[in-house]
Amino acid sequence: TTEPKAAGTWTAMPEELQRAGRFLGEFPNVKRCNQQLLRGIRDAGGKIAFLGAGHLSAAFICLYELQDVIDLVVDDNVNKQGLFMPGSRLPILPATALLERGIKVCLMGVRPEIDDAVRTKNQAFLDYGGRLVSIFPDSRYSLYAADAAALKKAG
Questions:
Q1: Tens digit of pLDDT for each residue in 60-91?
Q2: Do residues 53 and 76 touch, judged by C-beta distance below 8 A?
């Protein structure tokens, strides 16, 4: 037998395996729901963006196959602007593109702890009528807690 490298390493394994099993079991349904919701927004004439050109956003877009319903990704990091998201080839632009391109719904791919700061920084977008929602279920601005009908009306 292999000794654990840190206390509790092996004792947590069954719980992690159960969590992975739940994720795999729920994934197809969550993927379908995400696609349907975002396609509904697009079909209503709403442009959709993603905020945050990091690995979490890239994974969300690619795993849920959303590249055909998202117009662009915005990020304040000037070193990312002008590049394209890995896997989806969506353009990465400055946050000013939210207003300039007429984006109606913007999905935040940033840690929920900074949601309020991100919303404050993008207040002009919110004042314009844009919707900023988080991809994380535990965010108080979660896409999953948002009123789907209101999101579609944003389009």
A1: 999 999 999 999 999 999 999 999 999 999 99
A2: no
